[in-house]
Each structure stands twice: as structure tokens, then as C-alpha cells.
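Pipeline run #58 for the internal structure catalog. This entry was flagged by the ingest filter as a single-chain record with no existing model, so it goes straight to prediction. Upstream metadata was stripped on purpose; only the residue string is passed forward. Reviewer on rotation: M.T. Logging verbosity set to normal.
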Amino acid sequence: MAPTVLDGATVQIVPVKPPEIRRGDIVLFRMVGVGTAFHRVARIFKQNGEPYVQTWGDNVKHPDRPVPQTEVLGRVSAFKASAGGTWKILERTTWGYAKYFVRRYSFYYSYRLLVKGVNRVNH
């Protein structure tokens, strides 16, 4: 979940019921063949009448496969980067999600510029 939550950070998980899950939340969920993981909720939808969530790690190019909301075990409400660090509370606001969106795509485009280069037109 870097850059939001770095590897090795301690996270605080709070129980969450399926109707309480919101886009932008970082949730702990079960992934088939992987075990448990926590990623940000990118999309909430219904398939055959059953509610699903699709998650997307902050530093991953593609979203995860959708999982039923019943596979969501909890929501990350806070984290601390080190044993002696202070707890950082995660925001559950539209602005919190907007900051994530800006950070995600500014990183993506910066990466494309640095790695792939820029097509320049000389005038």
C-alpha cells in the first residue's frame, strides 16, 4: 500500500459491515489463492444481486479481481510506520479520496515521464 502505508507498518483494523464500505477505504480482505491483503476500494457494485468490491493497491498498475463484500474482514482506520512512531488516522472523506486520486495519477504520470520519456516537438 505504499506510498500511503509503507511495508512493515503496524495497522489498526476495525470491523466493517458490507453496507459501511465506501470507495477510498483501505480494507483487509481475503483473496483466493493469496490469503489476506489490504488495498484501497476502487469500486463497489452488484453482480447477480450480490454486492462486490474491487480493490486497487496504491502502487499497483492494475486493480485486483472483484471480491464479494462478505470477504472484507475490516477497514484500516490508522497506521504507524515504526514501533516508536505515532499513529496516523486515515481520513474517510471525499477529500481524502481526492488526495489519493491526485497522488496516484501524479505518481503514474511522473513515472511515465521518467521511464518512458517524453515525445518532444521542436518548433
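catalog note: The mean pLDDT is 78.
catalog note: The chain is about 20% helix and 35% strand.
status: ready for reviewer M.T.
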